[in-house]
Amino acid sequence: MSLPSKIKRTTSITVGEFFGQHEKALKLKLIGTEAGFSRKIMEPSVNRPGLALSGFFSYFAYKRIQVIGNSELSFLDSLDPKLRAARFSQLCSWEIPCLIVARGHRLSEELVQIANEAGISVFQTSMLTMKFLNIATIKLDTAFAPSTTVHGCLVDVQGIGVLIQGDSGTGKSESVIGLLQRGASLVADDAVRLRNIEDREVVGTAPDVTRGMIEIRGLGILNVAALFGVGCVRLSKRLDLIVHLVHVENAGILSGLGGRTSIWTSWGCRSPGWSCRWRRGVTWLA
Question: In whole angstroms, what is the distance from residue 92 CA to residue 227 CA?
């Protein structure tokens, strides 16, 4: 099996999207106006603009979120008010996405106004600076990771992320129900979104509209949490194994669990895969 050719590669996200998706996780609070919500974050990383505030802009990473911590605030407070406003205005003259002030600190109203007039939104987070840098970088890495959507079901079986694929009518959802009855957790049914995180691992999630749901032929759409409990639903899972169901009539020379193969090597990650025989009412997975 090979990776689907339609891979989405994100080159930027807007400040508004970043704030909307991670407001709670990063404990973000908007200070001032939404002037810069349409600005684009072009790189999956963050930057501390200490050198820029001192007037040194060589190799300034202006495409990244700018995070102001204790050291930057202490430096600004040490400057003469006119020089402080001039240095901050110089920083805001660049096409930076936004400014985030860590540790629950606030910029003065004068500096917030300078940023807003330049079309830059200012946020506050109560998190420690280094903790925010680490978590924000992980969130951005995920947002910028190449992604694709494949047909199948993704389940967590005793800590192993199993993607079950096969032609229509080969019993994918029936197999998943059997696994859920044995303690597995559902991640996604029918459509599985996969992201390649830094060529280290492939992580699968469900589209928002189908999360926690599974469709069974003849029964319709079922709420997994209502049937099996909330512990049987996971938001995401690393992909560890691919199982491809083949109807017994088309199994050919398959014997036992079938042949093992490697998949998605072209995406920088390798996962083992198995082909399994299946007939209605009896599945090797259950």
Answer: 53
